[in-house]
């Protein structure tokens, strides 16, 4: 209507609810000849209800179903059913049951809660967990480990290759730790002759033994190559640096077995374990 159009052209915005618009008529000499006020109720301009300037209100005398304050409101205690900010949707709201809803919150003090749910949270500093931490996935400053078993042929000897790849997916330097890997070959025994599936008497004075050979490479470079024979035991263990940004680390473990006289060897090797840990010296020292 005309009042709304006049308000928009005068102030450059649409009227809000309870906006009071007063129009003055002035004659040629500047004398006010007519004054008319209307209040916008959200859809139409109506005759204003009683408006009282805040400076003339006595303490404790404001009562009403709806009170609109166009200026700062200060009070030691405010009792309210629901507090809702302006905007659509509102930026925050507080309901009588204590539910606070807010788009953003900056809290410089403590937060005490007995339950709840957080999504996409970043903890910038230290955190103490006095209960149990459960997580489906952990990425970062945590030890990662993997294990494997070498192939065993007919329960007699070991032969095969295990390849371990540690992805370069962290922003910090790490170390690769291989705990002791133990491999062994069967002991000396008198040589037995095998013919047509039958074991005949051993050749007097002859002996035979098994061999177990382990070879380890790091990114294609050989770092270990040892063969043990009858009653022999070998142990491999190492710590390797893995700087961040240098690419994946690939470890290859190859074990094979043989017999001095071509018989079925008897060898064994323990399960393989490889760990990747963050390289940091804080809290530990070696002297």
Keywords, please?
287 residues, mainly beta, Jelly Rolls, 2 domains, five-stranded antiparallel β-sheet, four-stranded antiparallel β-sheet, 38% strand, PB4_spike, GpJ_C
Question: Can I get a quick summary?
Answer:
This protein is mainly β.
SSE succession = HEEEEEEEEEEEEEEEEEEEEE
The CATH topology of the largest domain is what?
Jelly Rolls
Helix/strand-derived category reads mainly beta
Shape, principal axes of CA atoms = rod-shaped
Uncertain residue segments: 189-206
- By CATH, the architecture of the largest domain is named Sandwich
**Number of domain modules:** 2
Tell me the β content.
Answer: 35-45%
How helical, in percent, are the residues?
A: under 10%
CA radius of gyration is 42 Å
Q: What CATH first level of the largest domain would be assigned?
A: Mainly Beta
Please give the alpha-carbon distance between the first and last residues.
Answer: 89 Å
Question: Mean pLDDT score, rounded?
Answer: 83
For the biggest sheet, the summary is: 5 strands, antiparallel
Q: If helices are DSSP runs of H or I spanning 4 or more residues, what is the number of helices?
A: 1
Secondary structure tally: strands: 21
InterPro entries: GpJ_C, PB4_spike
Domain Straight fiber protein PB4 spike: 3-73
Domain Tip attachment protein J C-terminal receptor binding: 155-286
Pfam family, one: Ig_GpJ_C
């Amino acid at each position: 209507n005309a009042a709304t159009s006049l308000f928009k052209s005068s102030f450059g915005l649409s009227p809000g609810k309870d906006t009071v618009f007063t129009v003055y008529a002035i004659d040629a000499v500047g004398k006010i000849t007519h004054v008319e006020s209307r209040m916008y109720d959200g859809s139409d301009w109506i005759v204003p209800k009683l408006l009282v300037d805040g400076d003339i209100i006595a303490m404790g005398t404001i009562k009403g179903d709806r009170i609109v304050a166009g200026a700062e409101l200060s009070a030691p205690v405010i009792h309210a059913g629901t507090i809702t900010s302006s905007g659509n949707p509102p930026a925050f709201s507080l309901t009588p049951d204590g539910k606070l809803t807010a788009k953003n919150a900056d809290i410089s003090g403590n937060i005490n809660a007995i339950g709840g749910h957080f999504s996409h949270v970043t903890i910038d500093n230290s955190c103490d967990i006095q209960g149990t931490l459960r997580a489906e996935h952990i990425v970062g400053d945590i030890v990662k480990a993997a294990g494997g078993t070498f192939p065993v042929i007919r329960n007699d000897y070991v032969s095969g290759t295990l390849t371990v790849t540690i992805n370069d997916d962290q922003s910090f330097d790490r170390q690769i730790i291989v705990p002791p890997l133990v491999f062994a070959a069967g002991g000396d025994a008198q040589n037995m002759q095998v013919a047509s599936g039958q074991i005949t008497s051993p050749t007097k004075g002859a002996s035979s033994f098994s061999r177990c050979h382990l070879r380890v490479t790091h990114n294609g470079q050989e770092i270990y190559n040892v063969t043990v024979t009858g009653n022999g035991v070998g142990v491999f263990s190492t710590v390797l640096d893995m700087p961040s940004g240098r690419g994946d680390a690939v470890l290859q473990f190859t074990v094979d077995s043989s017999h001095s006289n071509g018989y079925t060897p008897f060898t064994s090797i323990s399960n393989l374990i490889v760990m990747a840990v963050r390289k940091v010296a804080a809290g530990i020292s070696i002297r």
